[in-house]
Design a protein that fits this description.
The complex is a heterodimer of chains A (269) and B (344). With 269 residues, chain A is mainly α. Chain A has one domain. Chain A has a two-stranded antiparallel ribbon. The longest helix of chain A has 28 residues. Chain B contains 13 helices and 13 strands. Helices cover 38% and strands 28% of the residues of chain B. Chain B has two domains: 210 residues, P-loop containing nucleotide triphosphate hydrolases (Rossmann fold); 78 residues, Alpha-Beta Plaits, CATH 3.30.70.260. In chain B, a hairpin with a 2-residue loop joins strand 11 and strand 12. In chain B, helix 7 packs parallel to helix 8. In chain B, the strands form three sheets. Chain B has a six-stranded mixed β-sheet with strand order 5-6-7-3-8-9, with helices on both faces. The chains are: A mainly alpha (269), B alpha/beta (344). Chains A and B meet through helix 1 of A and helix 1, helix 3 and helix 4 of B. The complex binds adenosine-5'-diphosphate and magnesium ion. Adenosine-5'-diphosphate (ADP) sits at the interface of chains B and A. Adenosine-5'-diphosphate sits at the interface of chains B and A.
């Protein structure tokens, strides 16, 4: 047990160190930093406007009104943030594996997954966090929901567990780089599904509902956990299941990733 | 001397999918069981002693990197036994990594956009290096090469030579028992190669570190190794003192010099001129072969008779030379002679 704590302390220490260095370099490319933060915000503004326009014409979508949609949107932004910020290096894994650069991560006396994944932090994506908080607060007030410690605690827990799904999906898909050459295409394909996380699942037919719940489990990113707070009449066992399912999926993807990394043999040059 | 690495009948096969082209092919590849096997290391045995600098020489694709990757615990051998200080590297990669240092010439392990010193500090934490040890090593490194200008430079702005020097220093930072250097001199100029040779020699003699170096350049092993192992097509074809090998070649070196003048059009005129020059001054024409191609002069010199530099001095008086290169005997010719049975 004591050893275990020592190990955790060691990893936190290393992470902090690498993080600070990474932030320092990011700051030294200030223009770069500002432009990419700005473009992130504009991207979100664009999708926000599309929701707004939609509700100029319809008063509700499958019984979800404007503020409920905003809540869902805000929830999804928040739940996707940890993946974007802390697991950004996953997106370039396929390149590094393909070109053979990944081998340099295998020489250190340290967990390869940790060493690779947390080498970079995508601090620009933190803008999305603030947009998410604003949207949730705004819709929360407009919907007249309760505010008390228990419900805030519930919100935080459900956000945290919801954030595990995108992390798990990205880790799993990126780990395919260790077996197939065109994992990049696969990554691009799956990142498109992100957009579906901000719709109420009642718009999907049974087939897609099933797919988005269990095969590509993006339903757990925003829709299912949101039901704890709004549209509670749609709440079912699935939302409760999601709390555990995220942990299981994350563990499973991590194991697959490590298995791939350990059998990685590099390239001939 | 103590054995530190023991390798017995070690083999490594890569399993490679026979890929099909196109979209349909890509789908088929996912399910295909159509593999071919590439035997990268075939039944190699050897012992490596504590504190020695062993040179592993071989052409491109001979299997050198594969052998190194197995010794570092990154690759699992297909067959045979590999033991380093009594442990099997692959079985406990992390523990093993604490005791070794690794440099792959083409790929830096330093953080690309960080100043070098920051990379060193992160490495210090990753290996849990004591402050005292770190200080002592940095001071020692500073005696070997001036660190001031290097350490504050981001790695991405370094020349290849500077980067490799830093990578080598980084690999010694945690006082490893063994350091693996995979083609550290690849793509470098003569003078940088020379710096790297000196650095490796001083690190090895001060720290008593076992150094295992791979190269396809005879010059590297000639400069720093006493013993060499030659690998070809995954097999060990030579394993002995380097001087024994050199006996068979004589101390020949090849001098390449480029003439910086457009006036000279006829290569054969250059050859006769040089031959005359040498005849007049040293009368050693028997021991030299002289060629000229596109204003590149190539002279093979027997260093027992005369030094390459003297010959260079001589031709510099007659021609305007702008580029020179001095080459050891080529690895290819060594390997060819070994197969012909001339060295054994
Ligand atoms: N990851 C790999 N997958 C398949 N074949 C490989 C791989 N790595 C190396 N090879 C092949 O194995 C042989 C030996 O390669 P390598 O050990 O890199 O040689 P060297 O380092 O001496 O140039 C070469 O034929 C090379 O193409
Ligand atoms: Mg190699």
């Amino acid at each position: 047990m004591k050893n275990y704590f020592k190990k955790v302390k060691y990893y936190i220490h290393i992470y902090r160190m690498i993080l600070i260095q990474d932030l320092k370099t990011k700051m030294s490319f200030r223009a770069d930093f500002l432009i990419s933060s700005f473009s992130g915000i504009m991207l979100n503004a664009a999708s926000f406007i599309s929701i707004w326009i939609m509700f100029q014409n319809f008063s509700s979508i499958m019984n979800w009104n404007y503020y409920e949609m905003l809540f869902l949107y805000g929830f999804s932004l928040l739940a996707l943030t940890p993946q974007l910020v802390f697991f950004d290096n996953s997106w370039v894994l396929c390149d590094k594996v393909f070109k053979g650069d990944f081998i340099t991560y295998c020489f250190r006396p340290i967990n390869i997954f940790f060493y690779y994944t947390f080498e970079k932090i995508n601090i620009n994506a933190i803008g999305q966090f603030f947009i998410g908080v604003t949207l949730i607060t705004y819709s929360w007030i407009k919907l007249g929901l309760d505010v008390n410690t228990i419900i805030v605690f519930k919100l935080i827990i459900s956000l945290l567990t919801a954030s595990l799904f995108m992390i798990a999906i990205v880790i799993f898909i990126s780990s395919m780089s260790f077996w197939i050459i065109n994992a990049k295409g696969l990554m691009d394909f799956f990142s498109k599904f992100k957009d579906y996380t901000r719709y109420p699942f009642t718009i999907f037919n049974n087939f897609f509902k099933f797919v988005f719940s269990f095969i590509i489990p993006i339903g757990f990113v925003a829709y299912y956990p949101s039901l704890f707070f709004i549209h509670t009449e749609e709440l079912s066992w699935i939302s409760f299941f999601g709390v555990f399912y995220g942990i299981i999926l994350l563990y499973f993807s991590y194991k697959v990733w490590v298995k791939g990394a350990l059998q990685y043999s590099g390239t001939g040059s | 001397m103590d054995k530190t690495i023991e390798i017995n009948n070690l083999s490594k096969e890569y399993k490679v999918l026979n890929r099909k082209e196109g979209f349909k092919g890509a789908i088929l590849n996912l399910f295909s069981k159509d593999y071919k096997y590439i035997k990268a290391i075939n039944n190699v045995s050897m012992e490596i002693f504590s504190g020695e600098i062993l040179g592993i020489l071989g052409r491109n694709g001979a299997g050198k990197s594969t052998l190194i990757k197995m010794m570092t615990g990154v690759l699992k051998p297909s067959a045979g036994a590999l033991s380093i200080n009594g442990n099997t590297p692959f079985k406990n990669r992390k523990q093993h990594a604490l005791n070794i240092g690794i440099v792959f010439g083409q790929r830096s392990q330093l953080w690309w956009s960080l100043p070098c010193i920051e990379s060193f500090k992160i490495i210090k934490e990753i290996y849990s290096i004591n402050d005292d040890v770190y200080e002592e090593n940095m001071n020692f490194f500073n005696e070997l090469i001036p660190l001031n200008e290097l350490m504050n430079k981001p790695v991405r702005l370094m020349s290849l030579g500077q980067r490799v020097l830093c990578d080598i220093l980084a690999s010694f930072l945690h006082n490893p028992k063994i350091v693996f250097l995979d083609e550290p001199t690849i793509g470098l100029d003569i003078d940088v190669k020379d710096k790297i040779h000196k650095l490796i020699l001083s690190l090895n003699s001060k720290k008593k570190t076992t150094v295992i170096l791979t190269t396809h350049d005879m010059g590297d092993v000639d400069a720093i190794c006493k013993r060499i192992v030659i690998i070809d097509n995954g097999e060990k074809i030579y394993d002995d003192k380097i001087y024994k090998l050199k006996k068979y070649f004589g101390p020949n070196k090849t001098l390449l010099a480029h003439i910086n003048s457009n006036k000279i059009r006829d290569d054969s005129v250059v050859i006769t001129n040089i031959k005359k020059l040498i005849d007049k001054h040293i009368q050693l024409i028997d021991y030299l072969s002289v060629e000229c191609n596109n204003r590149w002069i190539k002279i093979v010199v027997d260093e027992n008779q005369i030094s390459v530099l003297k010959v260079l001095n001589l031709i510099q008086k007659e021609f305007d030379i702008d580029k020179i290169e001095i080459k050891e005997i080529s690895t290819e010719s060594v390997i060819k002679k070994i197969y012909e049975g001339k060295c054994l």
